[in-house]
């Protein structure tokens, strides 16, 4: 595997993913009951936007750095955007060129009753992540395949404590895109047998839209109450060679999460988009209850 997230940290896809993640965590925290988070592809937890990898691609420059500039000029950013930016700022802990990965964002959102299991396959990335989360007794790093770990981690428990709520973030590198989709849908189908009420958040890249259709068709057959795709396109989705945007596919999302997230998408497109940038929310399956 060649993928290293350091080249892409803080890009438009990270921004969308982490904004949605913060909104999901906040929705879960509306109730006192504990929740369990599984991050199947966690990465190293903290990235240096001034470092060699980020500087080589310039993706953060076209991503979070543009959003920071726009937000600084906004008198009242939409609440979900403000909460995402606050989460990033809190994780930076005074280091303005650092950017948090998903496990650090989750870790700092946990309450004493909540837990995180963060899976990372690459030993060097997992070791860095262990250091980043070493202060947090409620987060545990699993240096292993996240898809296989899901089988052991669901239904969620911590010693004698069983959890009635869980969020599973699936954020693979898509090095071979066509091979990743069956891994995702297979893992989610199995996880739903173990924990049908789980909330799943699956990140996916968008190049040309038709390549997504088989994946969405498969997802629509999964036994979930609802499925919502939240997408940000930084340019039209007509180039097969570039990542034109990305999406977060939410299975069993918290009630009315779209109302929190939608107002934040316009500023994301304004800040990080080129000509033809857009955003959209699409229900693949909607709970009529
Ligand atoms: N979720 C992270 C975030 O938002 O900060 C970024 C994750 S990055 C897109 C994907 C990560 O998954 C990489 O660090 C890669 O080493 C790791 N990885 C790849 N295949 C994996 C697997 N089967 N199980 C667990 N981790 C894997």
TrEMBL record:
<keyword id="KW-0949">S-adenosyl-L-methionine</keyword>
<keyword id="KW-0698">rRNA processing</keyword>
<feature type="binding site">
    <location>
        <position position="18"/>
    </location>
    <ligand>
        <name>S-adenosyl-L-methionine</name>
    </ligand>
</feature>
<feature type="binding site">
    <location>
        <position position="41"/>
    </location>
    <ligand>
        <name>S-adenosyl-L-methionine</name>
    </ligand>
</feature>
<comment type="function">
    <text>Specifically methylates the adenine in position 2030 of 23S rRNA.</text>
</comment>
<comment type="subunit">
    <text>Monomer.</text>
</comment>
<dbReference type="GO" id="GO:0003723">
    <property type="term" value="F:RNA binding"/>
</dbReference>
<feature type="binding site">
    <location>
        <begin position="145"/>
        <end position="146"/>
    </location>
    <ligand>
        <name>S-adenosyl-L-methionine</name>
    </ligand>
</feature>
<keyword id="KW-0489">Methyltransferase</keyword>
<dbReference type="InterPro" id="IPR007473">
    <property type="entry name" value="RlmJ"/>
</dbReference>
<protein>
    <recommendedName>
        <fullName>Ribosomal RNA large subunit methyltransferase J</fullName>
        <ecNumber>2.1.1.266</ecNumber>
    </recommendedName>
</protein>
<dbReference type="GO" id="GO:0070475">
    <property type="term" value="P:rRNA base methylation"/>
</dbReference>
<dbReference type="GO" id="GO:0036307">
    <property type="term" value="F:23S rRNA (adenine(2030)-N(6))-methyltransferase activity"/>
</dbReference>
<dbReference type="InterPro" id="IPR029063">
    <property type="entry name" value="SAM-dependent_MTases_sf"/>
</dbReference>
<feature type="binding site">
    <location>
        <position position="171"/>
    </location>
    <ligand>
        <name>S-adenosyl-L-methionine</name>
    </ligand>
</feature>
<comment type="similarity">
    <text>Belongs to the RlmJ family.</text>
</comment>
<feature type="binding site">
    <location>
        <position position="120"/>
    </location>
    <ligand>
        <name>S-adenosyl-L-methionine</name>
    </ligand>
</feature>
<dbReference type="Pfam" id="PF04378">
    <property type="entry name" value="RsmJ"/>
</dbReference>
<feature type="binding site">
    <location>
        <position position="102"/>
    </location>
    <ligand>
        <name>S-adenosyl-L-methionine</name>
    </ligand>
</feature>
<feature type="active site" description="Proton acceptor">
    <location>
        <position position="171"/>
    </location>
</feature>
<feature type="site" description="Interaction with substrate rRNA">
    <location>
        <position position="3"/>
    </location>
</feature>
<keyword id="KW-0694">RNA-binding</keyword>
<dbReference type="GO" id="GO:0005829">
    <property type="term" value="C:cytosol"/>
</dbReference>
<keyword id="KW-0808">Transferase</keyword>
